[in-house]
Amino acid sequence: MGEDDRLRAVVTLAQGMAAAQAPRDSWRAAALGACRALTGSFAALSVWERGHGRLRVLVNVGDLAPDEEEFPERETYPVHQFPEITEFLHERWAGGGGANAWVETAAGPVERGGYCHQRVAALRRRGRGCCVVAPIVLHGRAWGELYVARPQGMPVFDRGDAEFATVLAAVVAAGIAQTERLEEARRLAFTDALTGLANRRAVDIRLDEAVERHRADGAVVSLVVCDLNGLKRVNDTLGHAVGDRLLERFGSVLSLCGAMLPGTLAARLGGDEFCLLAVGPAADEVVRVGGEVCARAAELDLGDGVACGIASTGDPIGEVSSARRLFRLADAAQYRAKALRSAKPVVAGREGGLDDPVVRLADAPPPATGERERRRIRGLEP
Q: Where are the alpha helices (DSSP H) in 151-273?
């Protein structure tokens, strides 16, 4: 491969990673780009999990062996099986040296210093003739490695290939850094900064999807809306730092209870309002968890518990054709729970179906002024 071909290969790899919409797409683009650039038959991208002392394979591409998967769930290798990586991790890089790639061949020695050299053994076991291994350094630390192999019968990688692999690893590192930044930006866009729960934007998107699924296949969609009582009093008497601590503690309670319902989203809508969005679990299960939220919130040493309202398509609340209707029903139930000072959730539709006071409240036009208008202005009223 000439210099122009290699330059084009580098550009193609970088463009592929830049166009990726998710980390998996980025990993695959990196491995495929490196495989093509080095005229290999197989490539893998792996990450070093320092806390576990292991190399975990993120993606395999090309001609896979019977024991290899494209996105393996459990393909890991203990760090002690790869002394050459340990040397890079703890000696060369720590001392300021470069992270250069190297070549292994199936004809190399299997025994080195009394241990079975894993890469050579793997090459032979999988019918490959050689490989080039390029460490990936991110933010000045070892991140993982890029591995490209050729089958037996093809030319063995040479020193020039190893130097080119080092360049490719640097391009991959830049692509991974970009992917991490994008993922962090996405996370921040859908996360409440104080509690770490999902935010209103995340709920709106997920609820729209959930209602569409309900209309398509009848999946039960339930919304639990909680208003944290006593936050203003805490802020006024103890300060906003203590009020923030109350919000954080209730966020933890909500997250814990939400975990009792598989796949449930726990979120802070804004101010003192929180919610759980469940898709799939029966309405009775959601009501049970809502009761658990109320009980645990009442045990917090700050605040005055919560007012909790629940609306579920599993209850007799009429047709739910939009996310807005389910939100209004859950909010109306929460509003009634607050008015009644109820220690348990108020559930829309369970006191008379469509004649339920909550359903009538949700379907009534909201007043133009007063508390509900203030709530709308604050972004708490859908």
A: 159-189, 200-217, 231-238, 240-258
The answer to whether residues 178 and 18 touch, using CB atoms and an 8 Å cutoff, is yes
CA distance 27 to 9: 16
pLDDT above 90: residue 360? no
What are the distances in angstroms from CA 110 to CA 80, 106, 107, 277? 16, 9, 9, 56
CA distance 268 to 120: 53
The Cα–Cα gap between 193 and 204 comes to 17
Crossing angle for the helix pair 23-37 and 3-18, to the nearest 10 degrees: 170
Q: What is the value of pTM for the model shown? A: 0.59
Q: Report the run of H or E that residue 57 belongs to, with start and end.
A: strand 54-62
How many helical (H) and strand (E) elements, i.e. helices and strands, does the chain have? Answer: 12, 13
346 CB-near residues (< 8 Å, 6+ apart): 308, 309, 310, 333, 334, 336, 337, 340, 358
Average pLDDT, the chain: 86
Please write the tens of the pLDDT for every residue from 121-152.
Answer: 889 999 999 999 999 988 877 889 999 999 99
CB neighbourhood size of 123 (10 A) = 23
Give me 51's structure tokens: 């806390």
Q: Supply the pLDDT for residue 20.
A: 87
For 66-82, the pLDDT digits (tens) are 989 999 988 998 876 66
Phi and psi angles of residue 46, each rounded to the nearest 5 degrees, phi first: -130, 155
What was the pLDDT predicted at 288? 96
Within 10 angstroms of residue 296's Cβ, the number of other Cβ atoms is 18
* Phi-psi group of 83: left, alpha or beta (phi > 0 → left; psi -120 to 50 → alpha; rest → beta): alpha
Nearest to 45 by CA among 172, 157, 159: 172
